[in-house]
Amino acid sequence: MTTYGSYTDLELAALLRGGDQYAFSEIYDRYMPLLLRHAVDMLHDEDQAQDVVQDIFQMLWEKAGELEIHTSFSAFLYKATRFRVLKQIRHSKIASQYTELVKTEFEKGVASTDEAIDEKELAFKIEKGLAKLPAKMREVFELSRMQDLSHKEIAKQLHLSDHTVKRQVSNALKIMRESLNKGLSLFI
């Protein structure tokens, strides 16, 4: 049996082009530890680096018949490893950005859906509370809270005393609080 360890890189490349498995094994043994160290230095992750180097050697075996090396074999393998590492980094970065985007959009969707539901429930409870108010009290309350008129302006507009308006708003608030609290306790 021939000792492949004594062959040069160019001789091994020629044998590899012919499909020689022993030439491939010698190339693997010669360069795998060096390429792995190079990939680990770039990726800072041994598992990813091993995947990259395995991909390089798989590509080398699958494309052995088409192999044309114009530089040294080591330069060819280092360059292939560097390109594969950069591709891995780009892919990881894009995957990370996509994952972050999906997570952010999901959280926004959940929050906005919850807020929309809460707003609808609150609006329903307010309407329900308003419906419980007597007509005059409701009118006073709506002028106070929804049109933001002062007690004096409401009294003048409805021909009531300031004291009556103040009492009507106070009573309306009490009824509304009770209505909202009942709704919340049922909801919880």
Write a compact overview of the structure shown.
By secondary structure, the chain is mainly α. The chain has helices at residues 9-17, 21-43, 46-62, 73-132, 135-145, 151-158, 162-187.
Helix content: over 70%
Instruction: State the shape.
Output: rod-shaped
Instruction: Give the helices and strands as they follow along the chain.
Output: HHHHHHH
Low-pLDDT parts are: none
What count of domains describes the coordinates? 2
Q: What percent of residues are in strands? A: under 5%
Keywords: Sigma factor, Transcription, Transcription regulation
GO biological process, one term: DNA-templated transcription initiation
Protein name: RNA polymerase sigma-70 factor
Pfam family, one: Sigma70_r4_2
Could you describe the 3D structure shown?
Helix 2 runs antiparallel to helix 3, helix 4 packs across helix 7 and helix 6 packs across helix 7. It is rod-shaped and about 115 Å long. It folds into two domains: about 100 residues, RNA polymerase sigma factor, region 2, helix turn helix motif (Rna Polymerase Sigma Factor, Chain: A, Orthogonal Bundle); about 55 residues, Orthogonal Bundle (Arc Repressor Mutant, subunit A). By secondary structure, it is mainly α. About 80% of the residues lie in helices and about 0% in strands. The mean pLDDT is about 80. It starts with 8 loop residues before the first helix and ends with a helix. It has seven helices and no strands. InterPro entries: RNA_pol_sigma-70-like, RNA_pol_sigma-70_dom, RNA_pol_sigma70_bacteroid, RNA_pol_sigma70_r2, RNA_pol_sigma70_r4_t2, RNA_pol_sigma_r2, RNA_pol_sigma_r3/r4-like, WH-like_DNA-bd_sf. One of its GO terms (biological process) is DNA-templated transcription initiation.
